[in-house]
Every structure is written in structure tokens, then in C-alpha cells.
Design goal:
By secondary structure, the protein is α/β, with parallel strands linked by helices. It is built from 10 helices and 15 strands.
């Protein structure tokens, strides 16, 4: 297969590296920035393009959209019309505009779509989901999820003010950036039917997007979730807690562990990796899954329809803050 990576920033380069690691096939790349094109050409030995249409003329089988969020639909729709399977970095877009059009194209052309919420492939969250599904804590009542990290520390090698996270026009803002939390919470609690949110720009960061958000979600089954996200914490934190009728499950990304408290056992059980966890493991697992989906061996864990449901929650949270009311989905 031939893969076209659109956008050669940090995530685009990661996927190029992993495609090569997995011997997935030939890779080519497109980017508007000459410095990035030169870096990718030199580091990965791939053919690079400054013109997207010329890149598409090389007839890729698969397109990976790794651009700023506001550009996702532009490239994904063009690739879909060209009959390419699609890997789109999270979130699927910054608005609902043309998302349904993309879903229709993928359906009519029988294309595989996968939206890159890589934490679906983290060993810890997969274990949390397994323990929950096995009934280890009985009926689920509520979930607390948190992500926070000081934005200038995300990519310390570049000016944070120029990144898409800092720019509303590019689809930035902590609520879209931290859609991982919204995605895995919905994965845990089921379809969300109500959203309430407080958010705003509270810090001195030089950005025009929100930097803190507190979101309340309620599932159709009545499970309540609190999702906190921010650009301001000086110590990285990504974690969650699930409270059930018969126990509690906690997960900490930074501590690389899952803990289970069972009423039956009346003690905490610790699950930790015997070897140090490498962050790239979940990206490799994600790409392996995508390749199996293309071969029709598996169904995508998060296709365009699933990613649309995540985006609906994001947009509902923003509407809730503006209106001061709970938004029903």
C-alpha cells in the first residue's frame, strides 16, 4: 500500500516513523512548510510534496490527515473523493460542517475511517475498560477524568503561541485538544445525553482560546462524569477514577498504573507494568489496528461516526457555557 501523510509536524513524523517500523508500505508526505519537507525527506527518505493535488496524483491507498484541526475536513474530503482510506488525527474537526458529507463519502465508497484517539490503545485504559466490563466494581455510578499540562511545555522546542492549540481559528483550545478525555469517558459510560460546562481563558498565556474547562456529562443510563482539562498545570496530570456499587478503579498515566478496590476483597489491587512504558507503544498499537482494519480483519474502534459523537459533546459544552444551561443531546 501507499500512504500519504498530510502534515509533517510532530504527529505526522511519528506516524511516518511507525509506518516504516511496521513495514506497512511506501510512504509519501505533504506539507506547506519547506523546513518540514526537508527534514522529512532527509530523516525518512520519503518523497515529499508542496502541492497536495500533486501528492494525490501519486494515487495513495491511504491518507493520514495530521494537520491543524481546522484543516481536517479539507484534506479528508479530497482524499475520500479520491477513494483513499482515512486516518484522521483527533478531533475529527472543529465544527460539524461537512462531517456528515465525509461520513457519506466513506460509506458510499466503502472506505475505512479511523480517528486517532491513541489513548484507546494505552494498556492502562484498556485494562480499566476490561475491569469495568467484567463487573469488578459492579454498577458504575460516576467517573472523574482529568488532564492538565502547561501549554508551553507541550512542544518546548517551538513557540507555543504559533501552534494550533493557541489559536481559535486553527481549531485550538483545551476542550478540543483534550477530546481524549471526552472520548474515553464516553467509551466507559456509554452514550452521553446531557452536557454542562464552565470554561474560559483565566491564565496569562498568550492565546485566544479557553485554557481551563470543567465539564459535566450524563449518560443515557444515568452515569455522571466530571471531566477537568487545562493548559495551566505545571505538573503533568492525566488520570481517572471510576466509582461503582462494589468498588473503585483508578488509572494514572504518569504513574503508569491501574488500581482496583473491591468491596469483596476489601483491599486495593495494583496493576503496574514490569517494564518501563514507552509512549510510542500506543501509537504503534493504534497503527497496527488501522492496518488490520484496512485488511478487513477488524472494525475501527473509533470511526468517523464515533468521532462525530465526541465532537457533538465538545460543541455542546461550548454551547452550555455560552447559554449557562445544560445542553441535551
Amino acid at each position: 500500500m501507499r500512504f500519504l501523510v498530510v502534515g509533517c509536524g510532530s504527529i505526522g513524523k511519528r506516524h511516518l516513523s511507525n509506518l516504516r517500523l511496521l513495514s506497512a508500505g511506501e510512504a509519501i508526505a505533504y506539507d506547506t512548510v519547506q523546513e518540514r519537507r526537508e527534514e522529512v525527506r532527509e530523516k525518512y527518505g520519503v518523497k515529499v510534496f508542496s502541492d497536495f493535488e500533486k501528492a494525490l496524483q501519486n494515487k495513495p491507498d491511504v491518507v493520514l490527515v495530521c494537520t491543524p484541526t481546522s484543516l481536517h475536513m479539507k484534506y479528508a474530503l479530497a482524499a475520500g473523493h479520491a477513494g483513499c482510506h482515512l486516518f484522521i488525527e483527533k478531533p475529527i474537526s472543529h465544527s460539524m460542517e461537512r462531517v456528515d458529507e465525509l461520513i457519506d463519502i466513506a460509506t458510499s465508497k466503502n472506505l475505512i475511517t479511523l480517528v486517532g484517539c491513541n489513548f484507546r490503545f494505552h494498556w492502562g485504559l484498556k485494562l480499566v475498560k476490561k475491569l469495568l466490563d467484567e463487573g469488578k466494581i459492579g454498577r458504575l455510578f460516576c467517573v472523574r477524568a482529568e488532564f492538565g499540562q502547561y501549554l508551553p511545555d507541550w512542544h518546548p522546542w517551538e513557540d507555543y503561541r504559533k501552534g494550533y492549540s493557541a489559536n481559535k481559528a486553527l481549531g485550538g483550545g483545551i476542550i478540543l485538544d483534550a477530546i481524549h478525555e471526552i472520548d474515553y469517558v464516553q467509551w466507559m459510560i456509554g452514550k452521553v445525553d446531557a452536557v454542562s460546562c464552565f470554561t474560559g481563558k483565566l491564565s496569562s498565556l498568550d492565546i485566544d482560546t479557553e485554557d481551563i474547562a470543567e465539564i459535566l456529562l450524563r449518560s443515557k443510563d444515568g452515569v455522571i462524569a466530571n471531566v477537568h482539562m487545562d493548559y495551566v498545570q505545571r505538573v503533568y496530570n492525566r488520570s481517572c477514577e471510576l466509582i461503582g456499587e462494589e468498588g473503585t478503579i483508578t488509572w494514572s498515566f504518569q504513574d503508569n498504573q491501574v488500581r482496583l478496590y473491591s468491596v469483596k476483597d476489601k483491599e486495593w489491587q495494583l496493576y503496574a507494568r514490569d517494564v518501563q512504558y514507552e509512549v510510542n507503544e500506543m501509537y504503534v498499537a493504534e497503527m497496527e489496528h488501522f492496518l488490520r482494519c484496512i485488511k478487513r480483519e477488524e472494525q475501527p474502534v473509533l470511526d468517523a461516526n464515533g468521532a462525530k459523537a465526541d465532537l457533538e459533546i465538545v460543541l455542546a459544552a461550548k454551547r452550555s457555557f455560552k447559554s449557562g444551561k445544560t445542553v441535551k443531546l
